[in-house]
Amino acid sequence: MNYKLPKNERVHSKKSIKELFDKGSSFFLYPFKVLYLDQSIIENGTHQVLFSVSKKKIKKAVHRNFVKRRVKEAYRLHKHLLNHESEQKKLIALIYVSTDKSSFEIIQSKIQKILKKLQTLGHSS
Fold it and tell me: I need a surface site. Which of 21, 42, 98, 120 has the fewest CB within 10 A?
């Protein structure tokens, strides 16, 4: 099992980010807003994810980075819940919308639920 989170598994191109926010579908699972977009062919063939913590909600950069690290870690440990065999790859944006710093256990359980939901959404299409 690959527990790494290399750059090719993160959304980093402006074009992909714009497309995700313009055309993507979303759902809400507190403390996350999740945007996702199915793509039939992505260059590197992996699911790609973007992590965001609002400056409006969490003022201090130290705290935003702290939350982002927790979210990235939870995703990294549970990304195997997404089916990597399917030819349908997803662009995913995990947007943290709470004003307080959640514990790692809470973030981890929510990320697991999100990934399972994304997996079932992938099967229904």
Answer: 120
